[in-house]
Structure formats: structure tokens, C-alpha cells
Write a structure and sequence with these properties.
By secondary structure, this protein is an alpha+beta fold. The protein is about 40% helix and about 25% strand. It is built from two helices and five strands, in the order βββββαα. The chain has a three-stranded antiparallel beta sheet with strand order 3-4-5, with helices on one face. Strands 1-2 form a two-stranded antiparallel ribbon.
């Protein structure tokens, strides 16, 4: 998995990108293999730099692992709370 920072609030796994097209001078359409389309207000050059591995855009593997673990822990906690609520009924 290679997570890349496309915009301040948009991170994508570059392995799942199907196509990248310019949509004007400062916007780009990114089509994922599942058909989902992202249209960040980012010039195509910056998107292509991110996908090709420009250091500015790479997301540290340690950060990805930390986010994954935090999300998993949150999901487990939510499931435990839901089960407790069901048992109260």
C-alpha cells in the first residue's frame, strides 16, 4: 500500500488509482478502480508528483500503522459499547 497526500484533506492509496485527468488549470479528476471519482482543486502536476513518489507527498508508514491501530481500537470499543447496550434491553 502506498498512501499519498493529494491535498491537505485527501490521502489516497495510489495502487487503486485508475486514471488522472486535468479538469482545468487548477483542478484534477482522479478515478479509482472502484469507479469513485475525486476532484481536488489541485493542479495535475501536483497530483502526478504525489503519485510518482515525490517526498513532499509520501505518508510515513509509521503514521499509516498508527492511524490503522487507532481506527481498529475505536471500532472495537464501539462494538463493546453496542453489545453492552443490547444486554441492557
Amino acid at each position: 500500500m502506498k498512501m499519498v497526500r493529494i491535498a491537505e484533506d485527501l490521502y489516497l492509496n495510489s495502487d487503486f488509482i485508475e486514471s488522472v485527468e486535468a479538469d482545468g488549470e487548477s483542478s484534477t479528476d482522479i478515478t479509482m478502480k472502484n469507479g469513485e471519482v475525486f476532484s481536488p482543486n489541485v493542479p495535475i502536476k501536483k497530483v502526478l508528483d504525489a503519485i510518482s513518489g515525490s517526498e513532499e507527498h509520501l505518508v510515513d508508514e509509521a503514521v499509516i500503522e498508527m492511524l490503522y491501530k487507532a481506527n481498529k481500537k475505536s471500532s472495537e470499543t464501539n462494538e463493546l459499547l453496542l453489545n453492552r447496550l443490547k444486554n441492557l434491553s
